[in-house]
Amino acid sequence: MSQQYWLKLLYCQGYIAKVNKIKMIINKFLSLLNRYKTDLPTFTIVGVGPGDPSLLTIAAVDAIKKAKVIVFPVSDDNKKSFAAEIVKKYTKFKKNIPIIFPMARKGFDPDEIWFNAVEKIVKFINNDESVVLLCLGDTSLFASSSNILRIIKNNYPEIITKTIPGISSVSAAAALNDFDLVKKGETLIIKECPSSNSELTSLIKDSRGNKTVLAIMKVGKRWSLVREILKNEDILNKSLIALSIGMPDQIIQYASQYKKDLMPYFSLILIRFD
Asked: pLDDT, tens digit, for every residue of 32-81?
């Protein structure tokens, strides 16, 4: 074959290489552009507040209205979802998909729970359907939804994700009783109720001397023991209990007034030492 033939072949190959490179650049550009399109399916975690539908944010309602699929947590197959009840006005004609998030993790593999949930969500996204995952309270406080988001971001980076915050039970409880969560020069600690009596006692003693306000969450079955510690520290009248905030059976009163030995799962105590 002639020299001219080989020169033409090399020229064509070089041309093809350039075209392929241009195509790759265009594809990358389109991929970036897709992130700014509003018509692509998205995965959105929506904080729905503590229980009162009137506390839903405008952004939360808008996201729910736009989504085709609403995913919500339930503790088992036979229980209702508090989060789903809050938004039921907006979800009547949508795909409502419960996902089991066991409250008691004993006997369950947490990763298996989260990955199973992600698998369901991704199927809807791949079917060009936007998904909203409902989160009781705020999306940043003790929210199981953060595990779902982590897995999706790590394993499906192409999926567009959004997070819409909600009003937390801590903020709602404080507002309902004109309770200052934190003032200038103070510290606020939000903590799940310690399982150890000594840990809770130390926390209270340390906070008393450091201008620290305490928000102790998920008191529940530990209430009788917690009450004894509050009594020993002489702060029953400074400890505001808030139970099932925003729900029909809501209770807000000081610990000295609460006479029952148990509290519901959705329970918290706000403590000021001034």
From this structure: 665 555 578 999 999 999 999 999 999 999 999 999 999 998 877 567 88
Residue listed under structure tokens 């004609």: 93
Q: Average pLDDT of 84-99?
A: 93
Write down the residue that tokens 């350039």 correspond to. Answer: 18
Q: Are 179 and 210 in contact (CB under 8 A)?
A: no
In a shared domain, residues 179 and 265: yes
Report, as an integer, the average pLDDT of 169-186: 94
Same domain, 174 and 163: no
DSSP string, 22-73: HHHHHHHHHHHHHTT-SSS-EEEEEE-BSS-GGG--HHHHHHHHH-SEEEEE
Q: Are residues 158 and 176 in the same domain?
A: no
Counted domains in the chain: 2
pLDDT over 60 (residue 6)? no
Residue 65 lies in a domain: yes
Q: Backbone phi, then psi, for 175, in 5-degree steps?
A: -65, -40
Strands 239-243 vs 267-271: parallel, antiparallel or unpaired: antiparallel
What band does 194 get if pLDDT is binned at 50, 70 and 90?
A: very high
pLDDT tier for residue 262 given thresholds of 50, 70 and 90? confident
Residue 175 is part of a domain; what is its CATH number?
3.30.950.10
pLDDT class of 7 with cuts at 50, 70, 90: very low
Domain that holds residue 201: 170-271
Classified as helix, coil or strand, 193 is: coil
Buried b (16+ CB within 10 A) or exposed e, 60-69: bbebbeebeb
For tokens 């265009």, the residue is 26
